[in-house]
Specification:
The structure is a single chain. This protein is about 5% helix and about 45% strand. The protein is mostly beta strands. A four-stranded antiparallel beta sheet has the order 1-2-3-4, with no helix packed on it. The relative contact order is 0.10.
Length: about 300
């Protein structure tokens, strides 16, 4: 009996330990351009765009806390050059170019709580290379390109009624511009309207009127904007380098903040805390993080 126990113990002690299971590889996001980025809580949702010549339905999310990427429910309609914004905790995607380069009016709404897309009322005016931002419970969709060329049309989706209405036309028709909301006001910046623009026009949602304000120091299109505090950061664009300029709506002044080393255009940005996240872009520039306090960029790894 003792010999049997001794042999069993010897076998147990000399056995090779079971190998560790293969680690699950980290999810790597696809390189893309012409997409949109929406921030919900501390997560960045990267929506649509193109991986090459064709638009995609892929939606990926970057979790700032966990510092990880994952894939969530896909769009119903593949599209690039769409407008993406957050309204009432949901991601709204409107317009853009679909397969066959058809200009879209379709409107999709993503709920992060259920990981599901639903169809919203279509945009009254189909367009691409447009921009959107929210004020209160309303989504403002501004400018873009229609079959007739550059547009100044402004259409407003009210979350409380789930219906569209029109607002005053933007004075300068344009596409490839950026749109930022500070308080009750919207700022349309840059883009193309016959030529590359530095023009900035402000829409007051209370009065329903547009007014010209100080132009950007650097004319450009296909830029992105981010709002941190009450200041607007205009980033990159179809221009050499990645110029960074900040607008103070209270002082009506611009300040140059230098530039990043990589040219970045047709990309998307999101803001979490005091950091701006620049995701993707046409020239395959690596995603990066801009620190407001340090006024510098670092790669998003």
């Amino acid at each position: 009996m003792r010999r049997v126990l001794w042999l069993a113990l010897l076998v147990a002690c000399s056995s090779e330990p079971a190998p560790d299971p293969d680690p699950v590889p980290a999810y790597t996001p696809a390189q893309r351009a012409y997409h949109g980025v929406a921030t919900v809580g501390r997560k960045l949702y990267v929506v649509g765009g193109s991986h090459g010549r064709d638009p995609t339905t892929v939606v990926e999310v970057f979790d700032v806390e966990a510092h990880t990427w994952s894939r969530v429910a896909a769009l119903t309609t593949a599209r690039d050059f769409a407008a993406v914004a957050v309204l009432d905790g949901r991601v709204h995607v409107v317009g853009g170019l679909g397969g066959g380069r058809t200009t879209l009016a379709t409107h999709e709404i993503y709920d992060p709580k259920t990981d599901r897309w639903t169809t919203g009322p279509p945009l009254p005016t189909a367009r691409n290379r447009l921009a959107a931002a929210t004020v209160g419970n309303r989504l403002y969709v501004v400018g873009g390109m229609t079959s007739d060329g550059d547009a100044g049309v402004v259409e407003v989706f009210d979350a409380s009624t789930a219906a569209w209405s029109t607002a005053a036309v933007m004075p300068t028709p344009r596409h490839g511009h950026a749109l930022a909301a500070v308080g009750a006001r919207l700022y349309a910046m840059g883009g193309y309207g016959g030529d590359v623009l530095a023009t900035v026009e402000r829409f007051d949602s209370r009065s329903g009127k547009w007014a010209a304000v100080a132009p950007m120091p650097t004319p450009r299109g296909f830029l992105a904007t981010a709002v941190v505090g009450d200041r607007i950061y205009a980033i990159g664009g179809r221009i050499d380098g990645c110029p960074m300029e900040r607008y103070d709506p209270l002082l009506h002044e611009w300040k140059r903040l230098g530039s990043a080393s990589e040219t970045r255009q047709r990309f998307g940005v999101g803001v979490v805390g005091k950091f701006i996240y620049a995701i993707g872009g046409e020239n395959s520039a690596p995603s990066a993080i801009y620190s407001i306090s340090r006024e510098s960029w670092t790669p998003l790894r």
